[in-house]
From TrEMBL:
Keywords: Amino-acid biosynthesis, Arginine biosynthesis, ATP-binding, Glutamine amidotransferase, Ligase, Nucleotide-binding, Pyrimidine biosynthesis. The active site is at 257 (nucleophile), 343, 345. Pathway: Amino-acid biosynthesis; L-arginine biosynthesis; carbamoyl phosphate from bicarbonate: step 1/1; Pyrimidine metabolism; UMP biosynthesis via de novo pathway; (S)-dihydroorotate from bicarbonate: step 1/3. It catalyses: hydrogencarbonate + L-glutamine + 2 ATP + H2O = carbamoyl phosphate + L-glutamate + 2 ADP + phosphate + 2 H(+); L-glutamine + H2O = L-glutamate + NH4(+). It comes from Rhodocytophaga rosea. This is Carbamoyl phosphate synthase small chain. Its EC number is 6.3.5.5. Residues 7-137 form the Carbamoyl-phosphate synthase small subunit N-terminal domain. Small subunit of the glutamine-dependent carbamoyl phosphate synthetase (CPSase). CPSase catalyzes the formation of carbamoyl phosphate from the ammonia moiety of glutamine, carbonate, and phosphate donated by ATP, constituting the first step of 2 biosynthetic pathways, one leading to arginine and/or urea and the other to pyrimidine nucleotides. The small subunit (glutamine amidotransferase) binds and cleaves glutamine to supply the large subunit with the substrate ammonia. It comes from the Bacteria.
Amino acid sequence: MKYTPRKEALLLLADGTLFKGIALGKTGTIGGELCFNTGMTGYQEIYTDPSYYGQIILNTTSHIGNYGTLPSDQESSQVKISGLVCNHFSTIYSRHVSRESLQEYFERANIVGIGEVDTRQIVKHIRNKGAMNAIISSEILDVRALQEKLNEVPSMNGLELSSQISTVEPFLVGNENSEFKVAVLDLGIKTSILSNLTTRNIQCKVFPAKTTFEEMNTWKPDGYFISNGPGDPAAMPYAIDTMRKIVDSETPLFGICLGHQLLALANDVSTYKLHNGHRGLNHPVKNIITGRGEITSQNHGFGINEEDVKKSKKVEATHVNLNDKSIEGIRQKNGRAFSVQYHPESSPGPHDSRYLFDDFVKILKNK
C-alpha cells in the first residue's frame, strides 16, 4: 500500500478541552457522545454494534486496525458509530484472511476519526467529568467554528434513536421447523444475538422497533425477545407500552441491554444516565441467584434504579455489577420474563453468560 501523508485533525470536547492528532478514515466533521471502550480486541464488532449509533468511540487499547477487517466480523449491515478516537491507527494489517484495511473500510463507510492522541489522558478526563458530547474534524481546524458545530450536537439524554436504525420490514431468521417461534423487537439487534437464538432450535421473526404487541402476536410466537439498541430508554413510550402488554400476557420474554431497561420501565422502575457508562469486555457481574461470578461484555450508558427494584412487587434483582453495584439483571416474580443489562452473546468478549439463552429456552419449554 502506498504511503500517503495523513492530515491534521482536532477533537473538541463539550467542556472546551481540545486535542490535536492525525486524521483517519474519511476527511470530514462528525459529532456525538464521546465514550470509551476498554476491550482489547473485536473493534469491527464494536463499530458495527447498533447500540453505538450516535456515539464517538474511544478505544483504550493502544493499536487499532492491526488485523484489518472481515465481513464475517460484522454485527450489522454497516458501521454504526459516528466517529473514532484512538492512539495508534494502523493502515496495514497482518491477518491473512482479512479483506481490507480498517482505513479502507472506514473510507467506504464515510467514518471520520482521529488518531495519535493521548487516549489515556482523554479517558481519565471523561471518566472524572462524565460522558460528554464531542466533535472530530479533519476539515475545520478553526476552534471557534468547530465549537459552533459542536453546539448543534443533541444530548443523548432524551434522545430516541432505535427507530432510526431498526429494520424497516419484518424478516425471518432460522429454520421454519424449529421447536420454538420467538418474536424479536429490533431496537438495534446484533447478528450474534440472532445466531445464539437460532442455534437453540428457535425460529425468529424480527420486527421493526415501533411494531405493536398486537401486530407481533398475530404471528403466534412462543416467546418474545427485546433487543439492545441506542438512545435513552425513557424516550421510547412506544416500546414501553409494547413491553407492558407482553408482560401482561405472561408470554416468555428475554431482554438484553435496552430491552432490560425497557422491562424495568414497564414495571415502573426508573432509569438514569450513568456517569460514563459500562463499555468493554471485562466487567465483573455476580449472579445473585446462583452466587456465581461472570466476566461480561457490556455497552450501555443508562442504568435502572436500584431503590425502585428493591421496592417493586413485580420484579427482583438477579445480577449485580461488582464494580459499582448497579443492577445488571432482573426478573418478573412470576418467572415469565427476565433481562440483563450486559451482552451474553459476547461478541466480542468472554462466553461466561451464554447460559442465559439456555435459561430462556427452559422458560419456553415450560410455557
